[in-house]
Amino acid sequence: MTDTDTFESPVYYDDDANRDYIDDKTVAVLGYGSQGHAHAQNLADSGVDVIVGLREDSSSWGAAEDDGLRVATPVEAAAEADVVSMLVPDTVQPDVFEDVREELDAGDTLQFAHGFNIHYNQIQPPEDVDVTMIAPKSPGHLVRRNYENGEGTPGLLAVYQDATGDAKAEALAYAHAIGCTDAGVVETSFREETETDLFGEQAVLCGGISALVKAGYETLVDAGYSREMAYFECLNEMKLIVDLMYEGGIGAMWDSVSDTAEYGGLTRGDDVVDDAVRERMDEILEGVQDGTFAREWIAENQAGRPSYTQLRTAEKNHDIEAVGEDLRGLFAWDDGTESEEQEAEE
Ligand code: NAD
Ligand code: MG
Ligand code: MG
Ligand code: MG
Ligand code: MG
């Protein structure tokens, strides 16, 4: 097992969890998407009483029933439950919360997998309920698959409000029942989880990486190189590099690439991500911390997502997407579905 003694945050494992805190309770899992289906099925297979809460017209209703789960409306599910797990999309959680708040009795728990709505006050829970977070650090299908394979999924734990004095013990028991303490659960706060999540996806992961890829692609194409070569170098190879870093850290990546790539990268990388970029990262972080981003995103949703829709369309129409669609057809891994070209060749 990893030596976690040097970690800044406490880490909890199976032995730290007492399942008595969840085994006799009823958990309402609201939503049956990525996280919802995994939490609901893992909890049920762990012997916890689960009821899935979905809108009556939800296409997931039948799927949850086919998976052997009880399904009801969010209000009915919450009425029966001791723990309400809020696993509908973050943007609809405030509305769903208003529907179910009357069903939260003193001592019940409102549980999240992401802190946005609590941290930015979009949900203001009653004072007599526990408010906790168990956030698996994986998409739901892996949370489910790992559990079925007898492996765990690392997760985060946070307590925002401890009305009963048992909030953390119950959250740990929940984490145990969905398989997270098997791999390790790291303690954080709603604030830290929310702010690091938003910063990461904006500056480094989703926003940063896609902008870097597009900028590199455009630089090569504008200089007269072929779109195919630009795609291979700036997008396709990204996965190979990221896989190496994921498995063995940045050092494993440097070890695997050629000395030429290593020297070139070590001498030029900081020129791309220079002090000016670092300053803008600070600005992005400030916008997360002071709530500017949250207010903008909430207003965008209230207005019917006009900018979001426009940005999405522009992104889909970027030249790299057209080249990529054709080139990915060359790869056998292309999602198991053969491209028209491949089919024509056979
Ligand atoms: P999702 O979009 O995959 O699924 C949402 C589910 O909610 C769907 O079943 C949908 O039918 C249902 N739903 C939508 N509107 C509803 C309504 N008004 N009433 C009832 N049900 C409704 O969502 P997700 O990605 O699983 O996200 C759920 C939570 O988990 C979010 O807080 C998210 O931030 C968090 N989270 C997600 C991941 C991930 O990998 N997807 C990882 C960690 C945490
Ligand atoms: Mg209740
Ligand atoms: Mg409780
Ligand atoms: Mg996020
Ligand atoms: Mg190369």
TrEMBL record:
<dbReference type="InterPro" id="IPR000506">
    <property type="entry name" value="KARI_C"/>
</dbReference>
<dbReference type="InterPro" id="IPR013023">
    <property type="entry name" value="KARI"/>
</dbReference>
<keyword id="KW-0479">Metal-binding</keyword>
<comment type="pathway">
    <text>Amino-acid biosynthesis; L-isoleucine biosynthesis; L-isoleucine from 2-oxobutanoate: step 2/4.</text>
</comment>
<feature type="binding site">
    <location>
        <position position="197"/>
    </location>
    <ligand>
        <name>Mg(2+) 2</name>
    </ligand>
</feature>
<dbReference type="GO" id="GO:0004455">
    <property type="term" value="F:ketol-acid reductoisomerase activity"/>
</dbReference>
<dbReference type="Pfam" id="PF07991">
    <property type="entry name" value="KARI_N"/>
</dbReference>
<keyword id="KW-0100">Branched-chain amino acid biosynthesis</keyword>
<feature type="domain" description="KARI C-terminal knotted">
    <location>
        <begin position="189"/>
        <end position="334"/>
    </location>
</feature>
<dbReference type="GO" id="GO:0000287">
    <property type="term" value="F:magnesium ion binding"/>
</dbReference>
<feature type="binding site">
    <location>
        <position position="258"/>
    </location>
    <ligand>
        <name>substrate</name>
    </ligand>
</feature>
<dbReference type="InterPro" id="IPR036291">
    <property type="entry name" value="NAD(P)-bd_dom_sf"/>
</dbReference>
<comment type="pathway">
    <text>Amino-acid biosynthesis; L-valine biosynthesis; L-valine from pyruvate: step 2/4.</text>
</comment>
<feature type="binding site">
    <location>
        <position position="201"/>
    </location>
    <ligand>
        <name>Mg(2+) 1</name>
    </ligand>
</feature>
<keyword id="KW-0521">NADP</keyword>
<dbReference type="InterPro" id="IPR013116">
    <property type="entry name" value="KARI_N"/>
</dbReference>
<comment type="function">
    <text>Involved in the biosynthesis of branched-chain amino acids (BCAA). Catalyzes an alkyl-migration followed by a ketol-acid reduction of (S)-2-acetolactate (S2AL) to yield (R)-2,3-dihydroxy-isovalerate. In the isomerase reaction, S2AL is rearranged via a Mg-dependent methyl migration to produce 3-hydroxy-3-methyl-2-ketobutyrate (HMKB). In the reductase reaction, this 2-ketoacid undergoes a metal-dependent reduction by NADPH to yield (R)-2,3-dihydroxy-isovalerate.</text>
</comment>
<feature type="binding site">
    <location>
        <position position="55"/>
    </location>
    <ligand>
        <name>NADP(+)</name>
    </ligand>
</feature>
<feature type="binding site">
    <location>
        <begin position="32"/>
        <end position="35"/>
    </location>
    <ligand>
        <name>NADP(+)</name>
    </ligand>
</feature>
<feature type="region of interest" description="Disordered">
    <location>
        <begin position="333"/>
        <end position="346"/>
    </location>
</feature>
<protein>
    <recommendedName>
        <fullName>Ketol-acid reductoisomerase (NADP(+))</fullName>
        <ecNumber>1.1.1.86</ecNumber>
    </recommendedName>
</protein>
<dbReference type="GO" id="GO:0009099">
    <property type="term" value="P:L-valine biosynthetic process"/>
</dbReference>
<dbReference type="GO" id="GO:0050661">
    <property type="term" value="F:NADP binding"/>
</dbReference>
<comment type="similarity">
    <text>Belongs to the ketol-acid reductoisomerase family.</text>
</comment>
<feature type="binding site">
    <location>
        <position position="58"/>
    </location>
    <ligand>
        <name>NADP(+)</name>
    </ligand>
</feature>
<keyword id="KW-0413">Isomerase</keyword>
<dbReference type="GO" id="GO:0016853">
    <property type="term" value="F:isomerase activity"/>
</dbReference>
<feature type="binding site">
    <location>
        <position position="237"/>
    </location>
    <ligand>
        <name>Mg(2+) 2</name>
    </ligand>
</feature>
<dbReference type="InterPro" id="IPR008927">
    <property type="entry name" value="6-PGluconate_DH-like_C_sf"/>
</dbReference>
<dbReference type="Pfam" id="PF01450">
    <property type="entry name" value="KARI_C"/>
</dbReference>
<keyword id="KW-0460">Magnesium</keyword>
<feature type="binding site">
    <location>
        <position position="140"/>
    </location>
    <ligand>
        <name>NADP(+)</name>
    </ligand>
</feature>
<feature type="domain" description="KARI N-terminal Rossmann">
    <location>
        <begin position="9"/>
        <end position="188"/>
    </location>
</feature>
<keyword id="KW-0560">Oxidoreductase</keyword>
<dbReference type="InterPro" id="IPR014359">
    <property type="entry name" value="KARI_prok"/>
</dbReference>
<feature type="compositionally biased region" description="Acidic residues">
    <location>
        <begin position="335"/>
        <end position="345"/>
    </location>
</feature>
<feature type="binding site">
    <location>
        <position position="60"/>
    </location>
    <ligand>
        <name>NADP(+)</name>
    </ligand>
</feature>
<feature type="binding site">
    <location>
        <position position="233"/>
    </location>
    <ligand>
        <name>Mg(2+) 2</name>
    </ligand>
</feature>
<feature type="binding site">
    <location>
        <position position="197"/>
    </location>
    <ligand>
        <name>Mg(2+) 1</name>
    </ligand>
</feature>
<keyword id="KW-0028">Amino-acid biosynthesis</keyword>
<dbReference type="GO" id="GO:0009097">
    <property type="term" value="P:isoleucine biosynthetic process"/>
</dbReference>
<feature type="active site">
    <location>
        <position position="114"/>
    </location>
</feature>
